[in-house]
Specification:
The protein has 14 helices and 14 strands. The protein has 367 residues and is α/β, with parallel strands linked by helices. The protein has two domains: 124 residues, Periplasmic binding protein-like II (D-Maltodextrin-Binding Protein, domain 2, 3-Layer(aba) Sandwich); 177 residues, Periplasmic binding protein-like II (D-Maltodextrin-Binding Protein, domain 2).
């Protein structure tokens, strides 16, 4: 390890000065751990989640066949707007008395724990508490479960290896009601029987490299680079499509985007690809990295705008409709409990004023 690489280790601010190797050990054991929150731990094998039955999707999403999802079918499914009325999914949440939400705990300023044993906090956490308040009457009636990027689908009962199986069988494996974890609205997810709310944040894929790296962006200077992406992320899909055109070495895949930052600090990769919003939080954690945004590649191979949505099962249309209604109010709310105040509190310092307005509920998604 070079002196520069050594200096980079241990720079993760917001982790109480924990050394990077300690972070690595901790991350290795963070697969779907329950954060200390409200409510008792559930026994092994029990999900506590009851899903509504019925077809919200109807997209061909239940067909396990095609490797490439049908984008037109995804668009039709996503653009359906179920009514905001109580049904089986919401009834189950109210009977339980708490909302189960899958979140990250490694995304600085989005969803993380500032000190050991503290409650999670961040932009995504504010949204989760708003949903709990609207459905259950109190923002603290939410239980957070730590879910890595790779485990977001399985936590909803939507493991891709189970595609084509009966929904009742898939639902039985669920451990959360929804995922609020910088999850991009994509056709791949929708074709896996995952339903999304309307968007709550806009971003795009971004390249992060050490400050002394010669890489300028997506283009010729990227040739021969070793890049890292989180398994199951939009970044992984982007690199699978376009990595060959950039002459990349095999991509390193890890459970969480923060794992990629650690790999970059240790010098085992040359750069990482993640959502621009998460990239900004990584820069806040480590001043030794920068965003390589001088993109020189073919426009068709450059990242396109994408949107985060609240992910749910597609057989819970009542919950999807209710979350959409909540988001409508959250976007318009100019009080300290609204979208803009949460943005100011958590993200403005890194992202500035340019992203200070929420995306519209009818925003068109590029599939």
């Amino acid at each position: 390890m070079t002196q520069t690489q050594t200096q980079r280790t241990g720079r993760l601010r917001g982790w109480g000065g924990v050394a990077v190797m300690a972070v690595l050990c901790a991350l290795a054991s963070l697969t779907l751990l329950l954060l200390p929150g409200r409510g008792a731990d559930e026994p092994s094998g029990s999900t506590g989640v009851t899903a509504a039955r019925g077809a919200f999707g109807g997209t061909g999403a239940r067909q396990a066949a095609a490797a490439e999802p049908d984008k037109e079918a995804c668009a039709r499914t996503y653009e359906k707007r179920p009514p905001a009325k109580d049904g089986a999914a919401i009834a189950a949440i109210k009977e339980r008395g708490e909302l189960l939400v899958g979140v990250d705990q490694n995304s600085y300023r989005w969803a993380y724990r500032g000190t050991y044993g503290s409650e999670p906090e961040g932009f995504d956490i504010d949204l989760a508490r708003r949903v709990a308040k609207e459905i259950l009457g109190a923002a603290d009636k939410v239980r957070f479960k730590t879910v890595s990027t790779a485990d977001r689908g399985p936590a909803l009962g939507r493991d891709e290896k189970d595609k084509g199986k009966p929904l009742a069988e898939r639902d039985a494996k669920a451990s959360v009601d929804m995922i609020i974890s910088t999850m991009s609205i994509t056709c791949r997810h929708i074709s896996n029987d995952i339903a999304f709310s309307t968007p709550y944040f806009e971003t795009r894929q971004t390249l992060v490299v050490p400050r002394d790296s010669p890489v300028k962006g997506f283009g010729p200077t990227l040739g021969g680079s070793r890049l890292c992406a989180a398994t199951g992320s939009t970044a992984e899909a982007f690199l699978a499509r376009h990595g060959g055109a950039y002459g990349l070495k095999p991509v390193t895949k890890v459970p969480s985007q923060l794992d990629c930052l650690v790999r970059l600090q240790l010098g085992t990769v040359d750069g990482l690809v993640t959502d621009g919003a998460l990239a900004a939080s990584q820069l806040a954690q480590d001043p030794g990295v920068r965003i390589a945004d001088e993109n020189e590649g073919d426009a068709a191979r450059l990242p396109m705008p994408e949107f985060y949505g609240v992910a749910m099962r597609d057989d819970s249309p009542d919950l999807v409709g209710r979350v959409n209604q909540i988001l409508d109010g959250y976007r318009k709310d100019t009080s300290k409990q609204g979208w803009r105040e949460s943005y100011r509190r958590w993200l403005e310092a890194d992202l500035g004023d340019a992203s200070a307005s929420p995306p519209r509920g009818d925003e068109k998604i590029v599939w």
